[in-house]
Amino acid sequence: MAQTDGSPTVADRRPERLDRRVLLTVLSCVVVFSSSMTIVSASLPTMADDLDSTESLLSWAVTGLFLVMSVSTPVMGRLGDGHGHRRIFLAGTLVLAAGTLACALAPTAITFVAARMVVGLGISATMPNGIAIVMEAHPPALRGEAMGWFQMAMTGAPVLGLVIGGPLIEAFGWRSVFAILFPLALVGLTVAIKVIPDDRESRTPVPIDVQGAVSLATATLGFLLWLQVGGSDGLVTLVPLALLTIGAISLVVFVKVERRVEFPLLRLDYFRRRNFTGPLINHPLSQFAYMGSFLISPIMLDESFGYSVATVALILLFRPAAFSVSSPFGGKLAGRVGERPMLIVGTALMVASMVTWVFAAWWVDLWLVILGLLLSGLAMGLSSPSYQTAIANAVEPSDLGIANGMGSTLMNIGMLTGIQVMFTVLGEGRDPADFARTFAVGAVAVTLGITGALVMDRRH
Q1: Model confidence over 423-447: pLDDT tens digits?
Q2: Can you list the residues of the chain whose pLDDT is less than 70?
Q3: Which of 14, 267, 349, 379 sits most deeply, having the most CB atoms within 10 A of its CB?
Q4: CATH number for the 15-207 domain, one of 3.40.50.300, 1.10.820.10, 3.40.50.2000, 1.20.1250.20?
Q5: pTM as predicted
Q6: What is the pLDDT of residue 10?
Q7: What is the pLDDT of residue 2?
């Protein structure tokens, strides 16, 4: 595959095997972020006590991070396309390290939340450009396998973070986790400088579409804040509706801007390509159910089953474990049978997972809960590599960064929407029927997502 200006990409110079040095180097930088996600969520009560704050305020350390990522990831991806993925990736890794250090030193809850937003900015630069670097280091036939290993590490790191970080926090406090992650980020940055090839010569710098970037960011932020604020005030009250209106107007402005500018942030004609639009419909709806059920299931295990927090945490490990273990297998299968069949299989398994949880809620059956966890982990493990590779293979090599950025943003929107909608459906109810109804909504959302996979090109 060649650049549009005729210069070769990294993939053209690679043999038909995995470039493990590039893959491991990119992972060494981004797992610093992923390994901290679960531990931050699990440690909110401890942090609130230590910082003399509330869990409600500190929850913005998670929500705010995702908001920053969702808004800035497409822009960071486009910067990499124009100025070199290596350059933006390294800059993002440096910001990620600085944000991690700021987390360790944060004197107040507000500064901790701000530091986590800095981390979000860093990962918004490293993630789309890191994926682009991995894609360029491999020919299309091996991209699925490479992304399978990538997903395995990204999913397994939070599990290890929780297993190792829990005892570490009990012994030395929550700051010790970030104190350890900071030098690891610096090590990853040092290795990346030496290993990741310079790609600036193959880039043609273009002006950043500022109007497009601002309008897309405003549309994304308006929608996400509508969900966030509406979750407490009501989705159809004045302020949330105003936020939604701002988001909708900004989206219209974005489309108009992209149609007339010479160098658009995102080529709108990509949405006519089935293998670009199909995954963007399919996978975010799977994430809707995956993340929504991830936060509903521990409430059910507490309220209906009466399990302790420690027991609930152990039960929930079945899902990320299944996700992590199955990802390399899903990546290899994608290289053999194509992305479309793998997305269909993943969707079917996710529907089966939601239906299993419906019965688990009605019958208060632990084994059905575990089966549901395994099915949802398997669904994401088999389909996630195909989501990334289908989008990447559907665009020109010069647009890998922005394509990955859009993929990440829509996936985050799917996650946050699923969390908010399924929490709203559950409401204050804690009866088996309430939980069953909530998981049924997840099943409906995933079923709608099958249309995205079905419209994709049948050719491998």
Answers
A1: 888 888 889 999 999 999 999 999 9
A2: 1-17, 41-42, 202, 232-233, 309-310, 459-460
A3: 379
A4: 1.20.1250.20
A5: 0.85
A6: 45
A7: 37
Contacts of 56 (CB under 8 A, 6+ apart): none
Question: According to the model, what pLDDT value does residue 16 have?
Answer: 62
Q: What is the pLDDT of residue 5?
A: 38
Per-residue pLDDT at 424: 83
**Neighbouring residues of 117: CB distance < 8 A, sequence distance ≥ 6:** 64, 65, 67, 68, 99
Q: Where exactly are the structural domains of the chain?
A: 15-207, 209-264, 269-460
